[in-house]
Fold this protein.
Amino acid sequence: MLYAARVKSQLVKIMSDSPVQRLSPKKEWTLAPAAFRRLLQWLDGGADSDGQKYLEMRQRLLAYFDRKNCSAPDELADETLNRVARRLEEEGAIESETPARYCYIVARFVFLEHLREAQKATAVLDEIRRQRHGNDSTAAVVDDDKEKMLDCLERCASKLEPVNRELITRYYVGKERVKIENRRRLAESLGITINALAIRACRVRDTLEACVRQCANEAK
Amino acid sequence: MTSDPKYKHETITQYLLGALPEAETERLDELSFTDDEFTDSLTAVEKDLVDSFVHGELTGGELERFKAHYLASPVRRERVAFAQAFQVLGERESAGLRAEGPANVATKRGWFAALSTFLAPRPAFQWGLAAAALAVLLGGGWLAVDNLRLRQQMSQTAARRDALIQREQDLQKEIESQRVTNSQAEQELARVRDERERLEQELKKAQQGGAKPASGEGSIVSLILAPPLRGAGQVPTLSIRPGTSQVAAQLQLEAADYAAYRVALIEPAGNQSLWRSGNLKPGRNRKIVSVSFPARLLKSQNYSLRVSGVAAGGASEIVGDYPFKVVK
């Protein structure tokens, strides 16, 4: 129940932050609560996930637009979901594709449109500046930020269950062949496959990373 | 990473670096939505890729692509920053684990398993266990107190030992750092001496070549001054032969705090400035300042060269006075 409440509060936050909620001067369509509920149901595919599927899909969209080096992945992810919701509202159902594949198809269109828009002079300049900034930023963060992040990391790591803390420490330790061998031994000692171990370690690291991000934002 | 040949670690790495052909990129784009297994692999490989960058394992084209493509996104730059912090934490943790012993997880699981087996209900043993428990309770009370005392002693000893280990490591680092600094200073000193000898040789050749001024006029005398010591110390002596035109001084600095310095020739008796330099850049390791000034300013008496560091805004601050004695 606690988890469901957390997911709902995240959804409320996303809805209130979302540019979809605001009037788009170009499309003149807003995502009303009824349309949003319909979108959630469609993504759930019949089983009520309490908004979990929506959050997962939004996360995948964010990652997709980020991998494409788009300047505002959040906005593009919301624009994609907005279009899907609009189609659902207009047609009542989308049965030609699975939700995941349909979302990808719409995302691809949104991305291609974004690219075309980026060809306009101003956008191109912004993109170049952004890209250049990216190239110059191999140091990633200044020392002060690194210190803060390390503090946050230690704090967040101390909140992990000891077994998870030990797991990621052992999983990510070492380089190249040593790392591979460490992982093989760790999987053996836990009695699970390498793949299962990778998924488990990634999830623990994601949790840790999210905690550190939140902690670092609070510290700013 | 994954055993499924569909999702090769290498292919996913190339995908993340934006190095795959368009059609293949689109195929993997789609999988990132439709295939949970691929998404899991993608997440895992991305973390390994970022770690490889942080550990300095990426080279050549991969490194270039990582910088140009992967680091273009602020979100991904944050991931790199996280991985850098995570690396530091990992090193600390693994050092701790090594100290604990290798098969820690398995051992802990084993202990818990053994304990739960022993505690499983067995009626035949219950009375016997009760009697044994009473005896254990009586003896155990004393043992527990004694054990607690011993544990406290051990914990204090361990804390003292850890503090000593830490102190030893700090001292070793300090010695190492000092050694590096000394070695750099020695190299700089050797370089300066070589340079001085070379200049003297050149000057000698020039003088022998016919342009020799009467009574050695135009020659240079050089002087190397170490950082001024606190308290009394021997003042270096500079012998100036007749006809010497310039004094070239190499001033060794205690610290390399400024990008530029100014030097003034001071007559200590009246604390009067006889000559001032312009802004001078320090030498190669930033701990030597070279300056030359006319020898005619000097008489047989004590002087000092006052070195001031010039801050970025132009303000200057006295770094030190370098006394020397002139004998003519």
